[in-house]
Write a structure and sequence with these properties.
alpha+beta, Double Stranded RNA Binding Domain, five-stranded mixed beta sheet, 3 helices, 28% helix
Amino acid sequence: MRALLALALLAPACGYHPVYGGDSERFHVVLVRSLVPDAVASDEVVSGVREVLAREGALSAGDGYPRVEVEVLRADEGSEGIAAPSAALGGSASGTAGAPGPRARATEVGLVGRACLVRRRGGECERDTGDVRAMDVGASDVAAGVPEVASDAFHHRDLLRDVGKRLGERLARHVLGQPMASDEGIGRER
């Protein structure tokens, strides 16, 4: 009877478990390099890593060891839904009158980063995530056919923060070895 009870306690319940085991090790989080000009975006990536580690009970305060080292490598932007202003609004395709030239109806924002686990000063990088990307699309504000530049700037900053947070969450899940869908597939993440 005791042997059966011991065997039942050792068997996994559902078959899903972290790749790197379910140990209760705690990690510090440190931004070691950022190659993007927006410091807020990099801070949001680190914040996203910390939030996931905290939810999993794997976060330790400070910047000691073992630690997750985060790098923010690239920020990408692209225009979506480009359209020329209509003549009815006083614009022209050449941008000579009214609204200047073609305008994007939305902007796609993406961040690329990577993270790894370093157990001691000068130690090797373990559990390297490789390059991980997060992206999203935000619509432009248009009033009477003319883009609202100030409003777009605020929306862009918020969009970049959201993308940074999502990138950090993905990096943390990779480091913890949690199963997740690939973000390298064809199509766009929404």
